[in-house]
Description:
The two termini are 33 Å apart. A hairpin with a 6-residue loop joins strand 1 and strand 2. This protein is of the alpha+beta class. A 6-stranded mixed beta sheet has the order 2-1-6-5-4-3. It is built from 3 helices and 6 strands, in the order H-H-E-E-H-E-E-E-E.
Amino acid sequence: MIENFGLVSTDRLAGDRYTSLQRLENALNQAIAQAEISESYEEYLEIFDAFYADDIAVTSDTLQEPIRGKTRVRALLANFLAPLHIMAEIGGLLVSIRQAAIPGDVVAETHSAWTLELIGVSGNTCKVSWRVLRKWHGSLVSYEHHYDYGQRGGPLTSKDLYFDAASPPARKRAS
Length: 175
């Protein structure tokens, strides 16, 4: 499983806070991007546990109220990841996630842009994109805001998955 995520010691945060938070942000984003949903969704939960504060607050442009507390956010994350894992492991769905840093000038905030690409065994694709603002308290994320959502393609349907145990899915990649 995950060893140390390339974490930066909180002792080193006192020096150049901006650089230290950028390293933490990079370590978090790399851990997310390198985790393999087709193998396990629990790895993502381990990443969440390692990087997020117990009193985390999550907001988005689509939520009316913030989601507060690690237990509530973790449950929401698990409810999203478990079906995605099943569709990838059993249904042949190809899943990739990419991120790009967005430069900022506020010391305790980091920004990144994300793209989640889903490719069904049919070759149909759905790309979902969004941006994330994170506020850090020490070495943990204390606030996260998701915004600027976009979607190209999709939604994928059961025709884009393969659940016949008799033979493996024939994968076709969209060009």
